[in-house]
Amino acid sequence: MERFYITTPIYYVNSTPHIGHAYTTIAADILVRNRRQRGAETFFLTGVDEHAAKVARVAAEQGLSPQEYADQIAVVWRELPERLNASNDFFIRTSDDAHKRFVQGFLQRLFDNGHIYQDVYSGLYCVGCEAFKTDADLVDGKCPEHDSAPDWIEERNWFFRLSSFQQQLLDLYEQADFVLPGFRANEAKSFIAGGLQDFSISRAGQTWGIPIPWDPDSVAYVWADALVNYLSALTYARPGEDLVETFWPEVRHLLAKDILRFHCVYWPAMLLGAGYEPPRQLFVHGYLLLDDRKISKSLGNVVDPLDLIDVYGVDPVRFWCARAVSFGQDGAASIVGVHERYERELGNDLGNLLSRTTAMVARYRSGTLRAVMSPEGAVAGALAPLAADVAARLDDFDITGALERIWEVVRLLNREVETTAPWQLAKDPLRADDLDRVLYDLVDGLRVVAVVLAAYVPATAVAILEAICQPPALDWAQVAYGLTGETTGIEASPPLFPRLDSPVE
Ligand code: ME8
């Protein structure tokens, strides 16, 4: 059986979630739900990264210990995947005891394998990035990401011999799809080819973090702790089971370009050093930039974009994330865009198609659907390549392209309504069979669309299947023409996506 393990970055808890975090989590959920439909054994991991200096800073500002602060805010972060209807199998916190123990064992392996040495680090550290910086990284002496001057630190640290992994890393990049998209792989490759600096895996004089096992006065550098979550979680997510054997290295890491180096360079090297296989694949997506248009008071000041879910519902927000920009690229998105897609694509293209189709079956056939098929018809022809096309695009992480492919079918079904004009057929008793055929094709098309859309809009998919009186069968074999069963009881469906006021004044 195929195995598919997918991760999101574990998010810093120094503030609350925003739409960017939701974006990666939704993308991962779409990919894993689809793999599940296709029969793979899957595991989906998300969670939070707690041992950052910036977390300790915020805690101090609030007069709390870092752990007290993290315990409070972790509740909010745990709600993120729930509100997104994400189907994660586990939610990791890096303050979990089992994670801490695993990290210590992992670092000890690096030490025992001769990849760690002690030296003095004197240089710059940006707390915003939680990263060591060189002058070349700065603009006018400031970190361009955070517009602030990094701290000067001078301390005795433990270093990881990243430099000795250059060739092994370059060899990994010979595998064409190790990092996708290709332009991101090139970015990582040229960074590696440019020469690698050893990096510090410890911080001295700090208490918030995981103690270094052979030097308990130091703690693990936050990245040397956080990256290891992808492995550690597998050892304790299911009590009594070690999932490392099942899922490692069949892992796909999703992340945005801000943390490419840590994932595409440091992490594979750390794994090789500790005697693990490198990850199977990494996908680096772009940044989603939301405009800051004024939001109407009638919607209660949607300041936190996650509140979009309260206004539009979770499926429209998931749909929009997949569709707003081509997944992998950077893109500017707007709240108005959420509204437009809600009305035009979900409301009109999909919602109206269901309402019209069910209303016609109810009106012309008293809710009974006869199984009269047209294997040579336009609908059958459009559905035939769909399963393979959507799967191939999702295997390339092309969430946007797969959805566009599905939407071609939605548009075709809408055209079928217009060209076959069932309301005309219904007037002519001699054309009763033709009417049955058209109605069957429309309902069958809707069923298939529901199944392929289930990874994107899980609740909507089930609602469509219910409206056409079909069982909630979502396995990929259902993505084929002619599997709708004869049924009675189809009623005119109320709108899937009721009209809403515009969000912008
Ligand atoms: O970097 N557009 O955590 P973080 C798209 N703790 N994605 C975005 C985004 C945006 N505008 N903003 C955030 C960390 N993201 C570390 C990770 S992993 C071992 C440790 C998403 O809270 C995107 O996935 O800063 C990005 O890589 C991640 O959130 C950064 O989250």
CATH architecture of the domain at 335-478: Orthogonal Bundle
Q: What about the largest sheet?
A: 6 strands, parallel
The portion of residues assigned to helices is 40-55%
Biggest sheet, strands in spatial order? 3-2-1-12-13-7
Q: Note the gap between the termini.
A: 52 Å
Q: What tags apply to this protein structure?
A:
505 residues, alpha/beta, Isoleucyl-tRNA Synthetase, Domain 1, four-stranded antiparallel sheet, 19 helices, 46% helix, binds ligand ME8
Protein model, in words:
- This protein is an alpha/beta fold.
- It has a domain at 335-478: Orthogonal Bundle (Isoleucyl-tRNA Synthetase, Domain 1), CATH 1.10.730.10.
- It contains 19 helices and 15 strands.
- The protein has helices spanning 19-37, 53-61, 66-83, 97-112, 166-172, 182-193, 222-226, 229-236, 244-247, 260-274, 308-312, 314-324, 335-365, 378-383, 386-395, 399-420, 422-425, 432-453, 458-467, and strands spanning 3-12, 41-49, 90-93, 116-126, 131-133, 151-160, 179-180, 199-200, 202-204, 211-212, 215-220, 251-256, 281-285, 288-290, 331-333.
- Strands 3-2-1-12-13-7 form a 6-stranded parallel β-sheet, with helices on both faces. A 4-stranded antiparallel β-sheet has the order 5-4-6-8. A 3-stranded antiparallel β-sheet has the order 9-11-10.
- It starts with a strand and ends in a 38-residue tail after the last helix.
- 45% of the residues are buried.
- Bound molecules: ligand ME8.
- Ligand ME8 binds next to strand 1, helix 1 and strand 12.
